[in-house]
Amino acid sequence: MSASVAVYRSLYTEDRFKQAYGSEDGATGSMAFALLTSVAPIFGLYTSFFPVILYVFFGTGRHVSTGTFAVVSLMTGSVVEQLVPSPLEMNSSSSEAADFEAQRIGVASAVALLSGIIMLCMCGLQLGFLSTYLSEPIVKAFTSAAAFHVTISQLQSMLGLRLPRHTGNFSLFKTLASVMENLPHTNMAELLISLVCLAVLVPVKEINMRYRQRLRTPIPVEILTVIVATCVAYASSLDSSYNIEIVGHIPAGFPRPQMPAVKTFPDIAGDTVAITFVGYAVSVSLAMIYADKHGYSIHPNQELLAHGISNTVSSFFTCFPSSATLATTNILESAGGYTQLSGLFTSLVVLIVLLLIGPLFYFLPKAVLACINVTSLRQMFLQFRDLPELWRISRMDFMVWVVTWLSVVVLNVDLGLAIGVVFSMMTVICRTQRAGCSVLGRASNTEIYRPLENHSKCYEVPGVKILTYNGPIYYGNRSFFREEMSRLLGLTPEKIRSWEKARKALEKRERDATISTVERGIANTSFSSENEFFKSETSESDVQAVLIDCSSVIFVDVAGARLFTQMCTECQKVGVHVYLANCNESVLKILTSSGLMNYMNPQHIFVTVHDAVMYIQQQRCVYNCHTVNVITLLQSYALPPCCPLLFDK
């Protein structure tokens, strides 16, 4: 049967519809980050040169500058400390110190090599999408918590303490306890240097941030601080007079290519996977931020290739793992850089340091580099300001932020990140398991259907229960979906059994009455009582049709499809027909393949909810008119109501 439906109404925006029908309610940084990696500062300069050159040719982020990043450096330093722990006493000028440093950079380079290989394999397998599992709350909470690890790890350099580096779970608290225990041994000269550096760096960085629109280029406070501190330390012989720790010899020129310590691969594999995932996710996230800001696109798999090549090749030049750097990227973007070639200017500065200026920083106090490390984390600490807004927008994302932050701070960087990712995925699973099931009502004189709980002026279509489920239907939530549907429809096991008994009794009476009428020609005097019984059962639950709006059901698995079949059968037992609307192609294909059409009329699947409602109402009108006509015809021929003509198809 074909029919046409015309609807005339005003155009509705969401706000207008809610008003009508809704319910009322109320470079120096490179050297500094080398300290985090537990290697000599010169290797930080190498890491800020070679990866940058390689990324220029392979990367897609026009404003991204690669090099040393605090979080990646800290995680790499933890691996280095586990395999090559630093002794408390060692002569820095001895051959033993040179061998020790070679072992450390060998491990750090091995991490970079293995990280690059993993990224290249991921690129070959087109796994760039994996970065999406690090949501924005996870990334911000992780970097903010990692900033605390970096700050605590730099306290001993700022205070002039010679302490072993703690790794593993609760390392932050172990380091803090060790620092507090050794406070009486603080080197007052290094403490004074740290306080002066912080007094200079913090205000100038604040000026750079607040007046970045007016300043043509940020004030290079780090470079100025390094130069002044080096000159003061050289002129005053602070290393010999006050026993402060200095950078020491920085060789000029490029490093000689050498093989990383590949024999450590089995020991570093687990940590390297975490470092790779963090480095790539941070790099892609930063690249996407600036891509969205300037209107171009980022290709995640190409970024995997770029960072994979950068880490693999640079590892043979004594570099540790690299990633996108927040501070340098901000500077390049503020200075007007628009292509990857802008990274060549930063590498040019590093090149000048490597070839000419590097040896001049021999007397640079390590406390200065530690202060630069800490002050470079300003933006990471300020991410706490996002928490009130996050609480207002999404309580679930707020919980993801808090759990990730606490896990990273209390446990460790890599383990805390893993807990954050797992918890975030669990929240997604829980939300799909407990997706809301609502009853839809119709806005008068429109074809618009909305949940009655939020739109009190919408009304239910008589005799039709319109339900919508806001999530997928799969093995994980099929029980909840069944409970919600049964609750809204009132399909209790007791009611189903009572209906089955009533239907069987009615069929038996009709069968006996028909036989009696044919054999004896006696009218069925019980017809009216049976009909009254059927009407009473129907009026007890005035729902004769159930319409399921599948517009929010994005997918259905085998378990969900079987549940549809089971519910269709149960509804038929109580005399309720089932209709579907707004099914997407994949859902409809699975339902059809599972055999649902054996229990359901294929003509009961509609494109829209309104089409289904119009069809149901037309069918009821046709049935009512047909019943009235048949009864009138029987009365005109003076036939009893139980005449077989009534049941003749």
From TrEMBL:
Membrane topology designation: Multi-pass membrane protein
Cellular localisation: Membrane
Domain STAS positions: 454-616
Alphabetically ordered keywords of this record: Membrane, Transmembrane, Transmembrane helix
Pfam assignment, any one: Sulfate_transp
Annotated Gene Ontology cellular component terms: membrane
GO biological process terms, semicolon-separated: transmembrane transport
TM ranges: 33-58, 105-129, 188-207, 219-237, 273-292, 304-324, 344-377, 398-423
Name of the protein this chain belongs to: STAS domain-containing protein
